[in-house]
Amino acid sequence: MKKTRDLHLWIGLICSVFLLLEAVTGLLLTERWLMGMGGHSHGGHEHAQLNMIDAVKKASESGAFSMDEVGVVMNHGMYMVRLNDKDGTLVTIAPDGTVVKKEVNKFASFVRAIHVGKLGLWNRLMIDAAAISIIILTGTGIYLSVKILRAQAKAKQRKSVA
């Protein structure tokens, strides 16, 4: 039974660190204002990002594309935009605004929408609440695990002295 408890303690401690990291980064990605992202571009790729924004604007003039979740990818030495259209199709757009590739995967689009809180206010609030709960649970779990490990180390030390 002791080996099982020790195994549970160590696996829980190691997994908690990764779970904590995942929850914090997920919360930061969902609530971008926490990172001070107000829509201004900074850094070395500012020119390329501005070109991508222009490409997305050109491609979205019809209103078919969602500007909510946009990613930039490098393809053949050129920055391209990846986004989801209103039907859940993943679309890659070249800097001149032409559509390069379309990938239809409704399940993947649905999973992505759940993960980033794009299914409405309640979904976003639930994701934020879950992330904060995971941060609290893993933080307190790590604290308690370290406390248990210290107590075990002290007990071993006392046992070896006696």
Features:
four-stranded antiparallel sheet; 2 domains; Nuclear Transport Factor 2, Chain: A; 4 helices; alpha+beta; 162 residues; single chain; 4 strands; elongated; PepSY domain-containing protein; transmembrane helix; PepSY-ass_TM
In words, what does this structure look like?
It is a single chain. It contains four helices and four strands. The chain is of the alpha+beta class and 162 residues long. It has two domains: 77 residues; 77 residues, Nuclear Transport Factor 2, Chain: A, CATH 3.10.450. Strands 1-2-3-4 form a four-stranded antiparallel beta sheet, covered by helices on one side. The longest helix has 41 residues. The protein is elongated.
How are the elements arranged and paired?
Elements (H helix, E strand, L loop, with lengths): L1 H29 L15 H14 L5 E11 L2 E8 L3 E5 L5 E6 L1 H10 L5 H41 L1
Antiparallel strand pairs: 1-2, 2-3, 3-4
Helix pairs in contact: 1-4
- Note the overall shape: elongated
Strand portion, in percent? 15-25%
Rg (CA only): 23 Å
Specify the helix fraction band: 55-70%
How would you classify the helix and strand content by structural class?
alpha+beta
**Nearest-integer average pLDDT:** 75
Biggest pleated sheet = 4 strands, antiparallel
Total count of strands: 4
Distance between the termini: 25 Å
Contiguous runs where pLDDT drops below 50 for at least 5 residues: 39-49
Total separate domains = 2
Strand order of the largest sheet: 1-2-3-4
Order of helices and strands: HHEEEEHH
Quaternary form:
single chain
Question: What's the helix count?
Answer: 4
